[in-house]
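User: Hey, quick favor. My workstation is busy. Could you predict this chain's structure for me?
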Amino acid sequence: MSAAPTRMLLNGNHAVSYAVKLARPNVIPVYPITPQTPILERITEFQADGEMHAEIMTMESEHSAMAAAITASLTGVRVFTATASQGLLLMHEMLHYAAGARAPIVMFNVNRTLGSPWGFWPDQTDSLAQRDTGWIQYYCENGQESHDTTLQAFRVAEQVMLPVMVMHEAFYVSHSLEAIDIASQEQVDRYLPPFDPPHRLDPTIGESWGNTVSQVMFNNHRHDMDDAMNRTVAIARQADRELKELVGRGYGVIEQYRCEDARFLIATMGSMAGTARDAVDELRSEGLPVGLLKVKLFRPFPLDDIREAVTEISKIMVLDRNFAPGTGGFLFHELKSALYGMESAPEIHGYLAGVGGTNISPADIKKMVTCAMAEKPSVNSVWKG
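Assistant: No problem, here it is.
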């Protein structure tokens, strides 16, 4: 480490705000929505106190906020915004445009239930419904990880020229207090050099964006986006390693916990990984060879890392705090697809656990493990305790 960290008692949202301040974005279009609003409120306080020098734009909707973010990013400046739930859905049209424009915007989305019915509880369906827009997606377990991943997001976005969406869950993380080690400005300045892209809207360069293209040009452009996505996993690994060298914390694109001799894996992402970690410890104390596979980077999906992690595994139980009616859990289907064609692929069970913010305890997870060990692979089982 090059500097001593500052430890503060912060909620998860404010941990993100401090990371944004350290990243020195130039433009921040804002629009409030529960439970994301504290991120932007704290950022505006930083600006009012003279601790942050950014153009904060108060917009009339989330759609307008993303439109402004795209326009600013295309001029070659660093851009941040944040949203949640219905606000993210209102942005949907512009999310496609941002990715297609190769605008390296960083956006923090606080996972919250979608209407209808109306609610404010933790559920990942809002961001997972955007998985095919061309945005890179990270899912965080706690406030510390959200702080560090926000910094990584700027680094990755500006290297591959694609936008990045970082997530943590409503209330379980967004409003829960924990001790957060804040990176120093010196560390972040070393990690994030000023953004200076070679292509941008600039009369002296003579470049533009938004013209109508031919079918062939559009096809080639989409392939270029895919190439950037394919490079992202390796770049995300490098960004994680280099931040760890500076601040002493790293997460990888996946995490394997107590997997050295495991035969059974619990797979999940987001805050439920912490609960699953406790369940794994208890199951290990009872002599069961159970480990945790936490997926942090969801888009692009780290296929090779996943396959390597499960080579000695006989069964995987997937816990999804999300639900696509008609298909079930998003992570379950991604993992099932990743395992297709593997020699001696493990059996895979899917549980819809924690959908809509329903509480799942370590005891619940232990019961699910017992069921999954004894049964044939299940698809989209709804855990009712």
